[in-house]
UniProtKB/TrEMBL annotation:
InterPro entries reported for this sequence: Extradiol_RC_dioxygenase (IPR052537), Glyas_Bleomycin-R_OHBP_Dase (IPR029068), Glyas_Fos-R_dOase_dom (IPR004360), VOC_core (IPR037523)
Residue ranges, annotated region (Disordered): 182-202, 309-329
Domain of life: Archaea
Record's protein name: Ring-cleaving dioxygenase
Pfam families, per database record: Glyoxalase (PF00903)
Keywords, alphabetical: Dioxygenase, Oxidoreductase
Single annotated GO MF: dioxygenase activity
Keyword Transferase: no
CDD domains for the chain: PcpA_N_like (cd08346)
Keyword Phosphoprotein attributed: no
Length: 329
């Protein structure tokens, strides 16, 4: 078969949280991302689905969460995305360390990785996250959201996702099939377990890196873990060719599923990580004006007919606003 259209990189990463209000407060106020969509888990409408991104919900910027409060605490292990990293402008890590001190965020020492400076930290559910200093080009597609964090420090989409895999070779071959190129390997004493990190690079400007680390450490899905990582397949044709490529490698991708803001295909790669392929359209502004993104509970498709029932089953939440935060100081 013909090679698939290479993915430009990560589209979104979806994680599991506990308390929904705490999740909103951290990702909007502390990290300064915009809530671009407030919705429900379409497979479990009793649970919220929050989408945090840049100012316009640009592909490659959205971190999403299912706040399943009744799940136990998870722990990261083999077959999971172990770290999700975001890009921040060069010279901004001092700002972030000061901000983390002010907000009581747990963070670690900076490390150097592939010539870049990385600041590791965790969110309130224990989710491992990193900020990576990079040069943001003038034509960068991301649009900083500056309600809580200034432009010269604002998060500018994904940098990378790190996969912990027991047998990395089939996963690495799959990434190459998806159009990522091996960009190098280095010893990583900051990572436990697994001390050899192999980096793969896609061709897009945002979310272009996937790192693979070997480990047999057991994990458990729950609060503070990644549910799945989605890769950009911008058009239906791109997605169909990538789906065929996954099948050719012995995987079992789903049929296309309409997720309202994008169309998706899912499969577990050889090491157990749940991958998604996501189209670029119709996007987050397909059902809300840009200025109003995240302003209301959006119920896609036939869920709108059940609004009263669904709203009654969801806890009340308040989206942080800068004016409200200032008034409370």
């Amino acid at each position: 078969m013909a090679d698939p259209t290479p993915t430009p990189g990560i589209h979104h990463v979806t994680c599991i949280a506990g308390d929904p209000q705490r999740n909103l407060d951290f990702w909007v106020e502390t990290l300064g991302l915009r809530l671009v969509k407030r919705s429900i888990n379409q497979d479990d409408p009793s649970t919220y689905h929050f989408f945090f991104a840049d100012a316009e919900g640009t592909p490659g910027t959205s971190m999403t969460f299912f706040p399943w409060s009744d799940l136990p605490q998870g722990n990261v292990g083999s077959g999971q995305v172990s770290r999700t990293a975001f890009r921040v402008p060069e010279g901004s890590l001092d700002y972030w360390e000061d901000r983390f001190d002010d907000y009581g965020v747990s963070y670690g020492d900076r490390v150097e990785r592939f010539g870049e400076t990385v600041l590791p930290f965790t969110d309130p559910d224990g989710l491992p996250i990193e900020l990576v200093e990079v040069e943001i080009p003038a034509d960068d597609p991301t649009v900083p959201w500056t309600e809580f964090v200034p432009e010269d420090a604002a998060i500018r989409g994904f940098h990378s996702a790190t996969l912990w895999i027991a047998d990395p070779q089939p996963t690495m071959e799959l990434l190459e099939t998806m159009g990522l190129e091996r960009a190098g390997t280095e010893q990583s004493p900051d990572d436990t377990p697994g001390d050899e990190r192999t980096r793969f690079a896609a061709g897009g400007p945002v979310g272009k890196y996937v790192d693979v680390l070997p480990t047999i450490e057991g994990g458990r899905q729950g609060h503070g873990t990644v549910h799945h990582v989605a890769f950009q397949t911008p058009t239906d044709e791109d997605q169909a060719s990538m789906r065929s490529a996954a099948r050719s490698r012995g995987l079992n991708p789903t049929q296309q599923i309409d997720r309202h803001w994008f169309r998706s295909v899912y499969f577990r790669e050889h090491g157990g990580v749940l991958f998604e392929l996501a189209t670029s359209d119709p996007g987050y502004t397909s059902d809300e004006p840009l200025d109003d993104l995240g302003g209301r509970l959006v119920l896609p498709g036939t869920f709108e007919d059940r609004r009263e029932e669904i709203e009654a089953g969801l806890p009340d939440v308040t989206v942080p606003r800068a004016a409200t935060a200032d008034a409370g100081d």
